[in-house]
Amino acid sequence: MIVGKVQGVWFRASTREQALALGLSGYASNLADGSVLVQAQGAAAAVGKLEQWLQHGPALAKVSRVDIVELEPLASDSGFGIL
Predict the structure, then answer these.
(1) Distance of CA 14 to the CA centre of its chain
(2) Which domains does the chain have, with CATH numbers?
(3) What are the pLDDT digits (tens) for 37-65?
């Protein structure tokens, strides 16, 4: 979960671009509390690069915290959606 000024700043679309460029699948979703939930899967190195990028996000974002939790793999590993 990414906390800070992360909604209304193209965070989900930018995350999708980064994830696709890294060959990852998953999704980014706005949450009611103003944070963004990102679930990504793929090669460990690529996931690590996305995690690093999420620490700052796109230019207009102001990330204050990134909480990383390992989850069960998604049923589908094709594409990266925006929910």
Answers:
(1) 9
(2) 2-82 (3.30.70.100)
(3) 999 999 999 999 999 999 999 999 999 99
